Hints:
Blueprint: H1 17-43, H2 49-76, H3 86-97, H4 107-131, H5 135-149, H6 151-157, H7 165-172, H8 179-187, H9 200-206, H10 210-222, H11 228-237
Helix pairs in contact: 1-4, 1-5, 2-5, 4-5
The protein binds zinc ion (2 copies).
The site of one zinc ion has 5 residues, from α2.
Amino acid sequence: MSESLDASAFTVAPYSRGELVFHIAGGALNGLVWMASLVWLFAHWNLQWPWIALAILGGIYAADLGSGLLHWAFDTWFDEDIEFLRRMVLQVREHHVYPNRIFRIHFLHDAGTLSWIALIVTAPAIGIAMLLDAGAVVLGAAVFSLLLVTMLVFHKIGHRARQPRWIRVLQKSRLLISAAHHSRHHGGNHDFNYCLINGWADDTLGRAGFFRALEWAIARATGAEPRRNDHEWLRRFESRKA
Ligand SMILES: [Zn+2]
Ligand SMILES: [Zn+2]
């Protein structure tokens, strides 16, 4: 942790022109790939309903797992001294100390960075699936991309005390992350319930020890200590937790 970092450092610097261009470019490029996949699906529609259901459920599950993997990686391994990850690490650490400050971050900034990740993951898969005429993969990737880009909207839903009735119904049906599910992440050592869309991957792979196994392998390969930076932050700011 940087020695100069104190509570005022939570107030992250205004977005630079370079960051804004980066966010807009990510959103535009990923949006183009997403629209192309919808146009292609429309023009090549030959899917039977079991494949449609499988593609949609698979896309939702993969996006939930993807949200968990990203959250886990930031909570477990990165620190704010890595220049190009600094803003994201600060936002994640700040969130553990002051959970409600995420509502200050505009959707477009969240979505800009996540668009690049969705683009890198889905563009090659969508391209290959189009060449192979694998419509279910194109549909699944399009569902994955949409949910990954909007995953922090779901995270905010998991932090809102008051919700419209239809959202509460979706949460009760386990189709959306609930405050009860996500609060277990914040109440503990920040080492479980990482997934932010509906928690399906937490309740399956997570419970089966997926994240612990990944941690064990990475710690063994690199010698790094899981959550070292997060624990430093908590030691430093625990007393100020609001
Ligand atoms: Zn949270
Ligand atoms: Zn966390």
